[in-house]
C-alpha cells in the first residue's frame, strides 16, 4: 500500500509464517531447548560456562542471564581483552597514586641533590679565587 512504512527487520518480524513464538521462560542452547521456571537460575544449568572471563548473573527483570566481566575484559561473554594504556586506570602503567607519588618524590630528591652540588661548586670557585 502506498504511504505504509516498511516493517523493521527486528527479531520479532523475522519469524517465518507458521513458526511458533518461543515462550519467555525457554532458553535455547545450541540445538537444545530447555524450559525453566521464572525463579530458576540458568547460570547454574544451561549457562554454567557461558561467560569466558567473568561470571554469569541472572537478571530477573530482563529474564535473561548476563555476564559480569573481570577487570580488563569486555563483551557479551567477556571474551574481548581490553588493551592497557599508560593514561588509563590499567594495572601496567604509572597511573597508580603510589607509583606517581614515588616518581614525584624521586624527582624532587634528585633536584635537591643537584642544587646542593651546584651551590658547593659555586662556593668552591669563589673561595679558590680569593
TrEMBL record:
Residues 25-43 have a biased composition (Polar residues). Residues 39-79 form the EGF-like domain. It is a single-pass membrane protein. It comes from the Eukaryota. Residues 11-24 have a biased composition (Basic residues). One of its GO terms (biological process) is epidermal growth factor receptor signaling pathway. Disulfide bonds join 69-78. This is EGF-like domain-containing protein. The chain crosses the membrane at residues 103-128. Residues 1-10 have a biased composition (Basic and acidic residues). InterPro entries: EGF. Residues 1-43 are annotated as: Disordered. Keywords: Disulfide bond, EGF-like domain, Growth factor, Membrane, Signal, Transmembrane, Transmembrane helix. It is found in: Membrane. GO terms for molecular function: epidermal growth factor receptor binding; growth factor activity. GO terms for cellular component: extracellular space; membrane. The keyword Signal applies.
Amino acid at each position: 500500500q502506498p504511504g505504509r512504512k516498511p516493517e523493521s527487520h527486528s527479531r520479532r518480524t523475522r519469524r517465518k509464517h507458521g513458526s511458533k513464538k518461543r515462550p519467555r521462560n525457554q532458553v535455547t542452547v545450541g540445538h537444545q531447548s530447555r524450559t525453566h521456571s521464572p525463579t530458576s537460575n540458568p547460570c547454574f544449568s544451561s549457562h554454567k560456562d557461558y561467560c569466558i572471563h567473568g561470571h554469569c548473573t541472572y537478571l530477573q527483570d530482563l529474564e535473561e542471564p548476563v555476564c559480569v566481566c573481570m577487570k580488563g575484559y569486555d563483551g557479551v561473554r567477556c571474551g574481548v581483552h581490553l588493551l592497557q594504556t599508560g593514561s588509563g586506570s590499567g594495572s601496567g602503567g604509572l597511573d597508580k597514586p603510589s607509583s606517581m607519588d614515588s616518581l614525584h618524590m624521586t624527582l624532587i630528591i634528585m633536584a635537591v641533590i643537584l642544587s646542593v652540588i651546584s651551590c658547593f661548586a659555586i662556593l668552591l670557585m669563589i673561595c679558590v679565587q680569593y
